[in-house]
Amino acid sequence: MKKKVYVLNGPNLNLLGQREPHIYGHQTLADVEAACRVVADNNGLTLEFRQTNAEYQMIDWLHEARLGAAGIVINPAAFTYHSVPILDALKMCECPIVEVHISNIHRREAEWRAHSIMTVAVTGMISGLGVHGYVLGLEHIAHLAKRVE
Ligand code: CA2
């Protein structure tokens, strides 16, 4: 059976490509999903690509992923800065987790954007490489999944 990888997106990312293109680029979330699907297909992984504006929904998806996923790529968006329930749910996951931010959160005008509370629970973080960060995160998970086959 194919291993599952989750790519989870937090609030407002459904509007990717429609607002602030100078920061987030012109690609939509559907474009990101298509790019992720190529990586998943090339590596024999089943992709679960999702977006939510609701905290409880993200927590439920992490509980689902906790049980047997090969890995998680997560852009927690604004949850990054305050959601202890999502942090706790990430800590419950034993698989590799890559936190992705499209923008470089350390280079933003608002200083608070640099301080992710999720970093203590993730394997690594990619920030500032645009939507390519999702592809790189997924490739890393595919690389790890091959090693444990
Ligand atoms: O750079 C990222 O990927 C962010 O996680 C995006 C979050 C932001 O709160 C983080 O600081 C960095 C969400 C940005 C707001 O949502 C938008 C969605 C589409 C287009 C513009 C903004």
- Which CATH architecture? 3-Layer(aba) Sandwich
The number of helices is: 5
Order of SSEs: EHHEHEHEEH
Radius of gyration: 14 Å
For the record, what CATH class applies? Alpha Beta
Unreliable residue runs: none
* Overall structural domain count: 1
Classify the fold: give the CATH topology: Rossmann fold
Tell me, rounded to a whole number, the average pLDDT.
Answer: 96
* Helix fraction by DSSP (H/I, runs of at least 4): 25-40%
E-strand count: 5
CATH homologous superfamily caption: Dehydroquinase, class II
Distance between the termini: 12 Å
The neighbouring-strand order within the major sheet is: 2-1-3-4-5
Distinct compounds present: ligand CA2
The rough form would be described as globular
Q: Which strand-content bin applies to the residues? A: 15-25%
Q: What is the makeup of the main sheet?
A: 5 strands, parallel
What class, by secondary structure content?
alpha/beta
Record the SSE blueprint:
Layout: E1 3-9, H1 21-24, H2 29-42, E2 45-51, H3 55-66, E3 71-75, H4 84-91, E4 97-101, E5 124-127, H5 132-147
Parallel strand pairs: 1-2, 1-3, 3-4, 4-5
Ligand CA2 binds at residues 12-13, 15-16, 19-20, 24, 75, 77-78, 80, 101-103, 105, 113.
What does it look like?
It is a single chain. It contains five helices and five strands. It has 149 residues and is α/β, with parallel strands linked by helices. The chain has a single domain (3-147), classed as Dehydroquinase, class II (Rossmann fold, 3-Layer(aba) Sandwich), CATH 3.40.50. α4 (84-91) links the parallel β3 (71-75) and β4 (97-101). α2 packs parallel to α5. The longest helix has 16 residues, at 132-147. It starts with a strand and ends with a helix. 36% of the residues are buried. Residues 12-13, 15-16, 19-20, 24, 75, 77-78, 80, 101-103, 105, 113 line the site of ligand CA2.
